[in-house]
Automatic annotation (TrEMBL):
Chief place where the protein resides: cytoplasm
Organism superkingdom: Bacteria
Enzyme class: transferase
Domain SIS: 41-180, 209-355
GO (cellular component) term, any one: cytosol
GO biological process, any: protein N-linked glycosylation
Stated name of the protein: Glutamine--fructose-6-phosphate aminotransferase [isomerizing]
Enzyme Commission number(s) from the entry: 2.6.1.16
Subcellular location: Cytoplasm
Assembly and interaction partners: Homodimer.
Function comment: Catalyzes the first step in hexosamine metabolism, converting fructose-6P into glucosamine-6P using glutamine as a nitrogen source.
Keyword entries, A-Z: Aminotransferase, Cytoplasm, Glutamine amidotransferase, Repeat, Transferase
Stretch of the intact protein here: 244 to 608 of 608
GO terms of molecular function: carbohydrate derivative binding; glutamine-fructose-6-phosphate transaminase (isomerizing) activity
Source organism of the structure: Consotaella salsifontis
Amino acid sequence: DKGNFRHFMQKEIYEQPDVISHTLSSFFDMANGRTRLPRGQEVDFSKINRMVLSACGTGYYAALTGRYYLERYARIPCDIDVASEFRYRESPLSGVDFALFVSQSGETADTLASLRHAKAEGLTTAAVVNVDESTIAREADIVWPTLAGPEIGVASTKAFTCQLTALAALSVAAGVQRGVLSRDDELTLAKALSEAPRLTNAVLKLDSLIERLAHDMATKRHALFLGRGFNYPLALEGALKLKEISYIHAEGYAAGELKHGPIALIDDTMPVVVIAPYDRVFEKTASNMQEVAARGGRIILVTDERGAASGVVKDAELIVLPDMPEILMPIVYALPLQLLAYHTAVHMGTDVDQPRNLAKSVTVE
Ligand code: F6R
């Protein structure tokens, strides 16, 4: 039932404050600000030497963000690959003792095959999975559930932000166990994560502003998405969302890669969506934006109050989010990208919930 919403995708975008809050509650004891893993699914993170992560599509972008989290907060060395490559790559797994898979459906053929491969290689396997009756949930040694509820729209939205939430929380738990984070750090990060429902709610208030920007996006044939660091995987996810449901050709790049090729595409017909909160790499991305602007590219800058105040590009379209701690940025910044793709597709009249050629669960390779 779509309730008052026009599409399941829109409903699921709007459910995010609630389902993120549910997902958080399974990784935190909110009363005392401590992380705790779901009962029976505990892991001694201090014993992990090296981790491999794998998934497909949007789950892969969540895992890519997970690597940033796990390396930053828990100092766990991470390898990562899309599941269709991981399962056949025959990479030597020496030194890797733990494998983490991310899947909404828990049935994706390549992800399942990768899980079985990792098990056969003797690794401990864990899965961040949304459907708890799924094959991946049954076969993984450890299951860390996302509590997004059923996701009907083919383009993943709430499952993605719940995956990010789970991965952020796991990284904090791992960081504490590994002695990378102090008790104070844990409290600070837990408190930061507990703000995710409030902040995602605040971002939903930007809906009509984003809908206006989508009018213009709907007239384009191509779009570029740029981000750095924690927000680089979001550039990939923003481009994927747009191409899946609006069929506009979109590419996501690490902002630093701009001058190594994609800058050749920039002219006044090319919209460039830049995800750049005022974080430790903002100045770097700012110079990429100046390169785009100097070539007539039209920038949509998704930033925060401080980023907007920096006045880096004069005629950029701005989507200004509240200031927030770094750990929250991938979770909260996902929403404006989802809304941009959604409204663009609605303007174009495509079938938002059932885009052409796509299936919700990809059970064949
Ligand atoms: C994108 C999308 C797909 C899935 C991918 C993996 O919006 O939904 O890219 O993320 O097919 O599916 P799961 O997470 O079910 O393994």
